[in-house]
């Protein structure tokens, strides 16, 4: 029995040595599930402004209706997105710094300034296309365990 234990210990040391081609055994059950990184989402956008002015967002920043920011349910905070109004084809690039929208059927809430640039302040809602420009530095969303947003 002692020889068996010693033999296993030596084999383990050899397998883990830097000069060995054998690496440590990794159990597949311990690897995170890779999920596709969404690049485009289409759906209904709304905007919010004066009523939230100066209040903290999910990122900890204070909401400023005059900054180009947005609330999204699933994109990592700090994600940069280009939002295009599909009715007039106006677009703007902004940063996701909050969570929302809280109303089913909507995919993104924009700041007052972003809605103004996209030309739907009066309408209140617009069908938009969201293109991911970049994810925050150090964020590998495929490993974050977050569900992929659905395209509506």
Written description of the protein model:
- By secondary structure, the chain is an alpha/beta fold.
- The chain has a domain at 40-143: RlpA-like domain (Barwin-like endoglucanases), CATH 2.40.40.10.
- 14% of the residues lie in helices and 28% in strands.
- Strands 1-5-2-4-3-6 form a six-stranded mixed β-barrel.
- Strand 3 and strand 4 form a beta hairpin.
- The chain is globular, with a radius of gyration of 23 Å.
- Residues 20-34 and 143-152 have low confidence and may be disordered.
Summarize the helices and strands and which ones pair or pack.
Layout: H1 2-16, E1 40-48, E2 69-71, E3 80-85, E4 91-98, E5 106-111, H2 112-118, E6 125-134
Parallel strand pairs: 1-5, 2-4
Antiparallel strand pairs: 1-6, 2-5, 3-4, 3-6
């Amino acid at each position: 029995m002692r020889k068996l234990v010693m033999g296993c210990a030596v084999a383990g040391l050899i397998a883990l040595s830097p000069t060995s081609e054998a690496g440590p055994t990794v159990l597949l059950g311990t690897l995170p599930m890779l999920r596709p990184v969404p690049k485009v989402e289409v759906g209904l956008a709304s905007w919010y402004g004066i009523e939230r002015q100066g209040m903290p967002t999910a990122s900890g920043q204070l909401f400023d209706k005059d900054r180009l920011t947005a609330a999204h349910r699933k994109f990592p905070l700090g994600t940069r997105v280009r939002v295009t109004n599909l009715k007039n084809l106006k677009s703007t690039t902004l940063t996701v710094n909050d969570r929302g929208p809280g109303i089913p059927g909507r995919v993104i809430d924009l700041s007052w300034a972003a809605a103004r640039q996209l030309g739907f302040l009066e309408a209140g809602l617009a069908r938009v296309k969201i293109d991911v420009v970049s994810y925050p530095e150090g964020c590998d969303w495929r490993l974050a365990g977050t569900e992929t947003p659905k395209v509506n």
